[in-house]
Structures are given as structure tokens and as C-alpha cells.
Amino acid sequence: SSQHLDVPATFSPLLSIKLPSPEEYRKRKVALISGITGQDGSYLTEFLLDKGYEVHGVIRRSSSFNTSRLQHLYADQHERPNKFKLHYGDLSDSTNLVYIIAQVQPTEIYNLGAQSHVKVSFEMAEYTGDVDGLGTLRLLDAIRTCGLEKHVRFYQASTSELYGKVVETPQSETTSFYPRSPYGVAKLYAYWITVNYREAYGMYACNGILFNHESPRRGRTFVTRKISRAAADISLGKQQCLYLGNLDARRDWGHARDYVEGMWKMLQQEAPEDFVLATGETHPVREFVEKAFGVLGIQIRWQGSGIKEEGINVQNGKVIVKVDTGYFRPAEVELLLGDPTKAERLLGWKRKVDFDSLVKEMVEADLQAAKSLVEDQN
Ligand code: NDP
Ligand code: GDR
């Protein structure tokens, strides 16, 4: 009808309200985070609550407990009533995403939700493509369906896995992409759909191209956390040996707490742009192993080579690290080294935690946790 055609651009059909101007709308500080139960989601929630935001998160229904990283924030609820709320949802469910956005009316959306394990993506390629690739499209379209494309600022969790096979180092915003896994390829779609919606609909949408970032809250099957846990357990005699895949892969490892601050900074600029966050240093997996055991006073000597290589505890001669080819990937990303110059210059962002401090913090946290478990059992 003509009445329908007369609907002004600022009228949101779904919310059935006349929206205030984007400037007015953004005076509220309301964040919606997909992937809130993950490593980055928990640090970002803490960061935004401290900045005075109301924080909403999308949580998947699970038969087991999946909010352990957010537990301490629930405990804080009495001090900050109505500031933190979780909504059941999934990046594979468009209707649900529209409903959550309409309900929350966020000013900023951080899309951190993903099947984020590179090795697992080879086994669950279609699912990873659906959630990590199309899931990003669903979220962007949900924003448009709600009529909020000029009001909401959108952060996409892009990744150094986009670079994949080495084209140049260090890798920056202008380095071309060559993903090496179904995960990387799915994230490539997400990267470009974010750029496309920015250009097509004038959305404030940014890609943060983040290099690896870790913490004591890192998922236990990622290599750093697997090593820090094993080092703690082996030092206490609770585990004999750590089995790893490619010891020579090199990564640019930072601390997750530093990186979530960069995500927020990307959404506070005049105009949306894409940024690399990295430390500008690269270290092999092997060095992470040596440093992690080093924190506990255990020195490693390597012997043998290739898949026969072993790490020996110099003090007692025991084999404490072995290669298990089951952890090799069908295609590997051998070297990542990021150039964070643009973020440093335009966002004033810089990583604070260096490599040695990161390893130390992770190992000490796992040692503490392992010791309390032993005490609980006694
Ligand atoms: P995690 O694996 O720790 O967290 C992933 C989050 O996504 C979890 O909350 C998970 O929920 C959620 N999730 C998984 N599948 C779905 C789905 N179908 N619908 C909705 N939510 C889903 O990842 P990180 O915190 O380490 O990383 C955050 C984001 O940043 C990810 O997108 C990752 O790919 C990306 N990234 C990470 C880097 C890193 O080094 N950490 C570097 C660059 C990018 P549940 O808890 O229920 O499993
Ligand atoms: P990555 O992280 O693939 O870089 O993706 P991961 O810690 O899984 O692997 C890093 C490197 O270590 C090698 N490796 C092993 N990896 C695992 N998981 N387990 C092992 O036993 C093992 N042995 C050696 C791997 O081959 C690889 O080279 C992470 C994820 O957080 C992504 O979501 C994110 O986008 C990128 O970082 C940047």
C-alpha cells in the first residue's frame, strides 16, 4: 500500500517504534555479544561492564554447564542489577537473532561466536561454514531486519588464519589472504560480507584481524592451554607425557585481555575500518613448551627428529613430550607474524602482556587449579 511505501527510513518495522537519530540512540551503552561464554566473550564482558555498559550475551542451550567463564560476573549481579543478561540463541537460527536484537536494541554488537577450532573444522567443515561464515551474514541481516543498520556498530571477529599460507611477513591489513582450513575459508566469507555490508548499506562494521591470543581461560584443546595444563600436571606427577602435533609451527601470541580492549576501540572511531591486532613477535610451539616447563623449574632437552622427536626432562631423564601425528592438520599454517602498526597509530592500542609473562600466567593458573583439585580429592 502507499502507506507502506511512505514509511520513513528511520522507522523500524520490527520494533514498531520511530527510532531516534543514530547519535541519540548511541547515548545508551548497550552491547550484545555472540560467543559470550568463550574466552574472549568473558574478558569483553568484564571490560564493557567496567565501562558502564549494559551487556547482553547469546548463549547456547547445552546439557552440560557452559557458563563457567562468566560465573564471577553472576556473583556481581547484586552490585550491578539489570546490567548483565543472557539470551538463548544460536548463529544458525535467524529468527532467534532477529528476536534478540529487537528485544535488546543494542548499540554495539560483537560477533565472537564461532566453531573456533581449526583442526575440528576439517572434521566439521559444513557446520563451521554455516556458523562462522553464514552466521555472520545472519547477524548482519538481523540488524537490517530490525531497521538498525544505521544505529548499531558491528564488530566481526576476523582472524590471522585468513593469511594462512605465507605470502609476506609481517602480515598487515594489506596482505592478501590464503586460508588453509575450512575455518579460515568460513572466516574469509565473514570478513568480506562485513566489508560488503559496510559498503552497500553504510553500516558501521569493522573486522578485527586478531592474531592468536591466549589466557588462563583459553579452551583446553588449543595448544597453549594444552601445554600449560600438561606442564602443571606433569610437575605434580598427575600426568606422564604431553602429546603434541607440529612443534615447529610459529604463532604471534598475545593476551586475550589486551585484545578485547582493541575490539572496543575499533567501534569508537569516527569511521569504520579494519585493523590487525598482534604483538609483532613470533615464537614456535616448541619454545612455548620449553618456557612452560621452565616456569616450573623443569628443563627440556630435545632428541630425535620429525615424528620421532621427544622432549626429555633433563633432571630425571624421563620422556615428557612426544609427537602424535594425530594432531597434525591436513593443511597447516606454518608462520604467523602480525604488524599492529595501524592499530597502534590510529587506535592508540598496544599489547601490554609479553610472551614470557603470558606463559607464566597460564602455567601458574593451571598449577594452582591442579593443586586445589588434589587438595579437594584428599
Ligand atoms: P571460543 O572457542 O573460546 O568461544 C567461541 C564462542 O562461540 C563460545 O561462546 C561458543 O559457545 C560460541 N559458539 C560456538 N558455536 C556457536 C553457535 N552455533 N552459535 C552461537 N554461538 C556459538 O573462542 P575465542 O573466545 O577464543 O574466540 C572468539 C572469536 O574470535 C571466535 O570467533 C574466534 O574464531 C575468533 N578468533 C579467536 C582468536 C584467538 O586467538 N582466540 C584469534 C582470532 C579470531 P559454547 O561456549 O557454547 O561452545
Ligand atoms: P590455531 O590455534 O590453529 O592457531 O587457531 P591452536 O592453538 O589450535 O594451534 C596453534 C598451532 O599449534 C600447533 N599444534 C597443536 N595445536 C593443537 N590445538 N593441539 C596440539 O596438540 C598441537 N600441536 C601442535 C597447530 O598445528 C598450530 O600450528 C587459533 C584459534 O583460536 C582460532 O580460532 C583463531 O582464529 C586463530 O588461533 C588465530
Named CATH topology of the largest domain: Rossmann fold
The secondary-structure element order is HEEHEHEHEHEHHEHEEHEEEHEEHEEEHH
Order of strands side by side in the largest beta sheet?
5-4-3-6-7-8-13
Determine the number of helices (DSSP H or I, runs of at least 4 residues). Answer: 13
State the low-pLDDT regions, or none: none
How many structural domains does the protein architecture include? Answer: 2
Report how far apart the termini are.
74 Å
Give the overall average pLDDT: 95
EC number: 4.2.1.47
Pfam family, one: GDP_Man_Dehyd
Organism: Thelephora terrestris
Enzyme class: lyase
Explain what the structure shows:
Its cofactor is NADP(+). Belongs to the NAD(P)-dependent epimerase/dehydratase family. GDP-mannose 4,6-dehydratase subfamily. Keywords: Lyase. With 378 residues, this protein is of the alpha/beta class. It folds into two domains: 2-210, 3-Layer(aba) Sandwich (Rossmann fold); 223-250 and 284-332 and 354-377, UDP-galactose 4-epimerase, domain 1. It has helices at residues 2-5, 22-25, 39-50, 71-75, 94-104, 118-123, 125-145, 182-201, 223-235, 256-266, 285-295, 341-347, 355-377; strands at residues 11-12, 17-18, 30-34, 54-59, 84-88, 108-111, 153-159, 204-210, 213-214, 242-244, 250-251, 254-255, 275-277, 283-284, 300-303, 310-313, 319-323. The protein has a seven-stranded parallel β-sheet with strand order 5-4-3-6-7-8-13, sandwiched between helices. Strands 10-17-16-15 form a four-stranded mixed β-sheet. Helix 5 (94-104) crosses helix 7 and helix 9 runs parallel beside helix 11 (285-295). The protein starts with a helix and ends with a helix.
